[in-house]
């Protein structure tokens, strides 16, 4: 099949990353904007040795779970790739993607995944905006480098949409910047960098700035916190990749001493305020550097890890297998690297207790998962 040819294919399933997979002459073809069971006419956009990529020309047999996208920029803007899927089906598909990753990458089966969701629209309190050549603000185009002008984004907090409507409010010397908006509180990177922001989460005020990483769906974050920390207690805990100390702020009630590690000096400066007390240790370094320094030799009753999309490095995985904390909570934004890491941790003596899926980004294929484990030989 050349890039000029078209063909009708059957979409078998959706995979991590959000695309559908079909097979043409025995070769895998990845297709965005589809649903399992649909038949679609496609045109090849890229050929590879092991798989090809294609775009949809026409949906010849639509799934009953397809919906009219609640955004006129669906398929144009690169922000939301699942606007064509009914919200209930999005959750089912995300659960299936996690299970498939566990089986294919982690080489273990896990069926029971609890699902925790919030509002499907107007949920996003943190976005990265771009300024196009015309001066208008928007998001990057799907699969391209152009900026798509945005008048209003249906998944963004109304405060953020106020910035789209008034481009003059944004910094004129930046082509890309972060905007935080929640209710009446709006902060723009490059203008409000020194301003202190406060998010009320489950009865606690968490302070941070627009330059810090902070979860962008507060309703779902309020569901994740109790799932992650319930039942954790003891003398010592470690919060690794701690950011602004979100988990640590809640764990101070259950642990006498805590160690928090975060590579961002800005974020750790806020963690010192969110996790007060002279008995706690807060370190502005990478988790790998912390391990290499020898400071990680202490025993911990619980460890929480919240790594980037690349997951845990081999060094961190080895340390966890050696340290064997009584409880381990793994917060992940990538089901593939989570599956890889859980497979190795299970082989190293950890037992998987519970898995929860938290829908931080409705209308997208992004999957946030929390796994709870304990140390001990897995009889299975």
Account of the 3D structure:
This protein starts with 5 loop residues before the first strand and ends in a 5-residue tail after the last strand. It is built from eight helices and 21 strands. The chain has helices at 87-106, 158-165, 218-229, 246-251, 265-274, 287-293, 314-323, 335-347; strands at residues 6-10, 13-14, 20-24, 27-31, 39-46, 51-61, 114-116, 126-131, 137-140, 147-149, 176-182, 185-188, 197-201, 204-208, 234-240, 255-261, 281-283, 302-305, 327-332, 350-358, 368-375. Helix content is 23%, strand content 31%. The strands form four sheets. The chain has an eight-stranded mixed sheet, sandwiched between helices. A six-stranded mixed sheet has the order 1-5-6-4-3-2, with no helix packed on it. It has a five-stranded antiparallel sheet with strand order 10-9-8-11-12, covered by helices on one side. The chain has three domains: 6-66, Nucleic acid-binding proteins (OB fold (Dihydrolipoamide Acetyltransferase, E2P), Beta Barrel); 90-119 and 216-375, 3-Layer(aba) Sandwich (Rossmann fold), CATH 3.40.50.150; 126-200, no CATH class.
According to CATH, the homologous superfamily of the largest domain is Vaccinia Virus protein VP39
Class computed from helices, strands and strand pairing: alpha/beta
Largest sheet: 8 strands, mixed
Query: Compute the gyration radius: what is it?
Result: 22 Å
Number of domains: 3
| Shape, principal axes of CA atoms | globular
Low-confidence stretches are none
The CATH level-2 architecture of the largest domain is identified as 3-Layer(aba) Sandwich
Overall mean pLDDT stands at 94
Q: What is the helix content?
A: 10-25%
State the order of secondary-structure elements, H for helix, E for strand.
Answer: EEEEEEHEEEEHEEEEHEHEHEHEHEHEE
Tally of separate helices? 8
Strand order of the largest sheet: 7-20-21-19-18-15-16-17
* CATH fold-level label of the largest domain: Rossmann fold
Termini gap: 46 Å
Report the strand count.
21
């Amino acid at each position: 099949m050349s890039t000029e040819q078209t063909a009708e294919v059957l979409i078998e399933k959706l995979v991590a990353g959000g695309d559908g997979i079909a097979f043409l002459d025995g070769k895998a073809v990845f297709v965005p904007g589809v649903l399992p069971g649909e038949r679609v006419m496609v045109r090849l956009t890229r050929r590879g040795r092991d798989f090809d990529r294609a775009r949809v020309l026409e949906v010849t047999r639509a799934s009953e779970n397809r919906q009219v996208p609640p955004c006129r920029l669906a398929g144009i803007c690169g922000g939301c790739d699942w606007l064509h899927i009914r919200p209930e089906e999005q959750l089912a598909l995300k659960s299936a993607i996690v299970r498939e990753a566990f089986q294919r990458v982690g080489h273990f089966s896990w069926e029971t995944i609890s699902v925790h969701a919030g509002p499907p629209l107007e949920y996003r309190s943190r976005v990265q905006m771009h300024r196009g050549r015309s001066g208008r603000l928007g998001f990057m185009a799907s699969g391209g480098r152009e900026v798509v002008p945005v008048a209003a984004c249906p998944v963004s907090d109304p405060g953020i949409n106020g910035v789209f409507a008034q481009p003059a409010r944004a910094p004129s010397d930046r082509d890309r910047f972060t905007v935080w908006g929640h209710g009446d509180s709006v902060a723009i990177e490059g203008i409000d960098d020194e301003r202190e922001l406060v998010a009320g989460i489950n009865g606690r005020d968490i302070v941070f700035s627009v330059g810090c990483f902070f979860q962008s769906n507060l309703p779902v974050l309020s569901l994740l916190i109790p799932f992650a920390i319930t039942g954790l207690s003891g003398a010592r805990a470690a919060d690794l990749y701690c950011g602004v100390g979100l988990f640590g702020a809640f764990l101070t009630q259950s642990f006498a001493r805590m160690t928090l590690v975060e590579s961002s000096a800005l974020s750790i400066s806020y963690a010192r305020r969110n996790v007060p007390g002279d008995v706690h240790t807060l370190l502005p370094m990478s988790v790998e550097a912390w391990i290499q320094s020898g400071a990680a030799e202490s025993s911990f009753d619980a460890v929480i890890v919240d790594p980037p999309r690349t997951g845990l490095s081999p060094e961190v995985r080895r340390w966890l297998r050696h340290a064997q904390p009584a409880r381990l909570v793994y917060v992940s934004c990538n089901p593939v690297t989570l599956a890889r890491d859980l497979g190795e941790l299970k082989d190293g003596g950890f037992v998987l207790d519970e898995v929860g899926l938290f829908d931080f980004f409705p209308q997208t294929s992004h999957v946030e998962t929390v796994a709870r484990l304990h140390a001990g030989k897995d009889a299975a």
